[in-house]
């Protein structure tokens, strides 16, 4: 019998601890598949940030290093400058990347550091129990916006990919979604393009991936997908923004 | 050792780092550290290393941590406010057992304080590196010459124990010019197999470098963390026996002791000379390592021999004074002479303060 | 034997350069020397000042309460530092900007018209070099030859500068003889 599919070797041989309906697992799997396809299994290195996304380091069979909350792009800068031949994946959530780490994120992008930032945007702080993030949608109920996010007080959603795309230096900026099969295929293509740019020494790429957080959205995974289709993607349109 | 050349303190110290095999520097400009950052902005490129002007001290120390995890000897320099910003990552580096050297070119006071020299960061680096109670080593050179001599050691010890190492100088030392003999060049060591270095697989499957020792021999994370911290404490306690450095000057027959560190100790030496010329039996005890602090050496000073002592520092409220008091025999009266506001301690005043206790 | 100097003037009179040149020259002569730029709480009043120590042995304190030689090149510096000369020390004032200078008892007063002398050297900017020559010759702890050589090396390669600075240094040395 012909083997048509097997578990990617870069993925750990056990189940992830991500919640049902969460799309982190999909993103991690895509990273591993792209690394295999590009033959960079021995040179890929990941950054473990703070938040739910930190867990990805447990589920992959390559080196990862932890960083303080928000500082991923700075630590990555120090690493990559000295190991230019390794392919560095800075994997972050939206709170880490666009709130506490906004300064480091923007400056690394502006310097054109030769690594790939993958930001999972689920519009909440997941690990800490669903507080509002800069990405939280107007009116969205979270544990710190219990009557719905009031933009007068908390600001509008921060469209980070658009901000980064406004800088002259970054080579490739895109937003993709993980809630449809078509979206997953496009996300994989985007990750591959970003890695290829990095391998060629081309510079900085930013890949934002929309994900659901059914646990903190207090929805079923099915409803979360529907909500992403009808609401989330309206605030965060999918597609290439630069490069 | 090369011939002595006249050099600014900050620049000589940065050159010493380059000669010690440091190949990565990230820093954010802050007075009185700026000449150090400016120097390495061109010097690192010349030597084939990397220089990054960071967007903040937060970023700078994390760049250093990242460079260390690439296996590169790495350095940052800052001053008090910047060190405050760095403390979270110092804690992370202790927990993750990641090396790196941090030079704190102290300025005085709290908040923005002032740009002139001071010694008021003593507690901040001798009690805990940020939250959590873990620490690395702290060196407090008395002069530019001693600072350059300690630079290789700072990197070696940082890597040996896998902890961040802090070197405390101050604004006056950084701006002062005097002749310095720089150490010889050494090649950067190969650190690629070190457990804190990522992406150098050499046949192994994976390495997760994490800032908390969750993973270990036990399936229970809490047990692993506790065990790791017990081992950490044992390591720090051993430093009391192996890593303490101090200088005793004219202590053999001393009946009075001046305690001082860094620039204050340099000034105090002049006071000791003056008092000796007046026939007073005064000596100087100077810690070179502030962490580990020379506890037992201070405790060993006999009340039968020493009639009084004086702790000198450029910090108000006093800090070093209380550390000395903690270890000095309670029967030996200990006075405090201290200045802040950017005023340097003066040898005439030190001599007067000591004489008042005679 | 350790000598301490406090040098003060307004920014642009070359006070910091003077202090640094003294340290370079002392090092050439294998003496210990320190230069500490205006520092600490005393940094106010619009003056630029620094302290220099020169010694045959290791130097401890780089600053002091009072100095063997206090050099003041403008009026605010004179007002601030005239009383920081050690008894039996020397107060050196730039008489072109400081009229009717008085020194405390037991302190020797030297008045030197730097404006006039620097005109003779060829540039108003050479006051600090004249002072370097004067200090070397008058105090004697820095050998004149070493000082002149290192000064010419540090102060620019253009021939006209070399000639001008060389002349300025010699004028300072000549002037020192008048006070010996």
Structural description of this entry:
The complex is a heterotrimer of chains A (243), B (358) and C (180). Chain A contains nine helices and nine strands. Chain A is an alpha/beta fold and 243 residues long. Chain A has one domain (24-242): Rossmann fold, CATH 3.40.50.970. In chain A, helix 1 (24-38) packs across helix 7, helix 2 (72-82) runs parallel beside helix 4 (102-111) and helix 3 packs across helix 4 (102-111). The longest helix of chain A is centred in the last third of the chain and has 19 residues, at 181-199. Chain B is of the alpha/beta class. Chain B has two domains: 5-180, Thiamin diphosphate (ThDP)-binding fold, Pyr/PP domains (Rossmann fold, 3-Layer(aba) Sandwich); 246-356, Rossmann fold, CATH 3.40.50.920. Helix content of chain B is 40%, strand content 19%. The radius of gyration of chain B is 21 Å and the shape is globular. Chain C has one domain (2-179): Pyruvate-ferredoxin Oxidoreductase, domain 3, CATH 3.40.920. In chain C, 41% of the residues lie in helices and 24% in strands. The longest helix of chain C is centred in the last third of the chain and has 21 residues, at 159-179. The two termini of chain C are 19 Å apart. Mean pLDDT of chain C is 92; it is low at 40-44. Classes of the chains: A alpha/beta (243), B alpha/beta (358), C alpha/beta (180). Chains in contact: A-B, B-C. Chains A and B meet through strand 2, helix 2 and helix 4 of A and helix 3, helix 4 and strand 9 of B. Strand 8 (177-180) of chain B pairs antiparallel with strand 2 (32-37) of chain C, so a sheet runs across the interface.
Task: Give a topology summary.
The complex is a heterotrimer of chains A (243), B (358) and C (180).
Chain A: H1 24-38, E1 44-48, E2 64-66, H2 72-82, E3 87-93, H3 94-100, H4 102-111, E4 116-121, E5 124-125, E6 131-132, H5 151-154, H6 160-165, E7 172-177, H7 181-199, E8 205-210, H8 214-217, H9 221-235, E9 239-242
Parallel strand pairs in A: 1-2, 1-3, 3-4, 4-8, 7-8
Antiparallel strand pairs in A: 5-6, 7-9
Chain B: E1 5-8, H1 9-19, E2 24-27, H2 34-46, E3 50-53, H3 57-68, E4 74-78, H4 80-96, E5 100-106, H5 122-126, E6 137-139, H6 144-161, E7 164-170, H7 171-175, E8 177-180, E9 208-209, H8 221-242, E10 246-249, E11 256-260, H9 262-277, E12 282-287, E13 289-291, H10 295-299, E14 308-313, H11 320-327, E15 334-338, H12 347-356
Helix pairs in contact in B: 1-2, 1-6, 3-4, 9-12
Chain C: E1 2-9, H1 15-28, E2 32-37, E3 48-55, E4 67-72, H2 75-81, E5 85-94, E6 108-112, H3 114-121, H4 127-139, H5 144-154, H6 159-179
Parallel strand pairs in C: 1-4, 4-5, 5-6
Antiparallel strand pairs in C: 1-3, 2-3
